[in-house]
Amino acid sequence: MSKPIVAIVGRPNVGKSTFFNRVAGRRISIVEDTPGVTRDRIYADVEWLSHNFTLIDTGGIEPDNGDVIMSQMKEQAQVAIDTADVIVFMLDGHYEYTPADEEIAQMLRRSKKPVVLVVNKVDGTDMPSHFYDYYNLGIGEPIPISSVNILNFGDLLDIIVGYFDESSKEVDDEEVIKVAVIGKPNVGKSSIINKILGENRVIVSDIAGTTRDAIDTPFEYDGQKYTFIDTAGIRRKSKINEKIEKYSILRALTAIERCDVCLIMIEATEGVTEQVTKIAGYAHEAGKASIIVVNKWDMLAKDNHSYANYENSIRDDLAYMRYAPVMFVSALTGQRVMNLFEKIQLVSNEHSKRISTGLLNDVISEAILLNQPPSDKGVRLKIFFMTQSGVKPPTFVLFVNKKELAHFSYIRYLENTLRKNFEFTGTPIKTIVRERKKKTFK
Description:
- With 442 residues, the chain is of the alpha/beta class.
- It has three domains: 5-168, P-loop containing nucleotide triphosphate hydrolases (Rossmann fold), CATH 3.40.50; 176-351, Rossmann fold, CATH 3.40.50.300; 357-435, K homology (KH) domain (GMP Synthetase, Chain A, domain 3), CATH 3.30.300.
- It has eleven helices and 17 strands.
- Strands 2-3-1-4-5-6 form a six-stranded mixed sheet, sandwiched between helices. A six-stranded mixed sheet has the order 8-9-7-10-11-12, sandwiched between helices.
- The longest helix is centred in the middle third of the chain and has 16 residues, at 243-258.
- The protein is globular and about 75 Å long.
- Keywords: GTP-binding, Nucleotide-binding, Repeat, Ribosome biogenesis.
- GTP 2 binds at residues 183-190, 230-234, 295-298.
């Protein structure tokens, strides 16, 4: 059920980030003529000819000195091999291939993964004199492109999607709720899934980082189909020492992108740490429905106020996610674990909720009467109407006279009004402000 993953690999400064930005349609990666600028992996969802896939921009080899270049190259290439479904091996067309390129080509051949050999910076119809030497790498036919001029991009993307199976072209099963279990390492993500499944389908250990990949597990409960995605724990960047673990984080982030509901795991004995705040922020910014799951609740000494006090503390630390319900569970004892399904179903429904334009504007009109829109230099914000343009998350378009007058605090007021009337439990709300152009008559 996961999207195919296409990784771009190659030495520094061959144009990987420029290519990535062009295909993604927006400037995501930092592009400079300095080797090693892209230090972390960056991903984007891409569609080509009805095929959906995830494109990964990888950092080039960053040798500290000549003695370690081969070892670092092997680490980088191996991570891409293990993670990607299709690999784009990019070279700089201005130069002949190097011994480092030969070494990585050898590893790619052994991987048995589909590899597309791309020669970048070929800006004209005349091939460089050394172009046909690239065949000696044994990867296949080199595809000349120019990332700057978007030359031959269509042909290249045709070749890439040609390696996908038909599942990448199919529409997701709307009846299946995809649930990503995310959080720091060793907070009980795998244990929760194992308890739900009733069997050890995911490796569990007390060693942080056991789950290297995002693992999809289908499950049906009370007539509803689910897919649980167990992800590698997300650590602070300063604690990521292994190259392969950086890709585990990438897998976790891509799992967030393709899920419907995020279970944000917190260890009861730790509470909301700085890293938990960042992880929750990933889900919030991705517009995903979320549930905050406090695991190992059985390990705390409790009184009559424990639930309320702990939840209030979470609300203070994750103020931007006040919409997310909080569940207190124990994966070890099974306490309230199965109650998660009711909440998952609830937030999934809220994530897909639609409000009619008529009802929506009745509520907005009342909100405007109770709290007049702001004004600036004698000009008051005028709200014409609001309509819902999408779901997952619920997305609303607000038409106004002057966009710059729509202060974020007033937009927040309108969003809170929507929540008061329509709840939207567990899901963020997105509001787009647009100016309605005045009609001119001739």
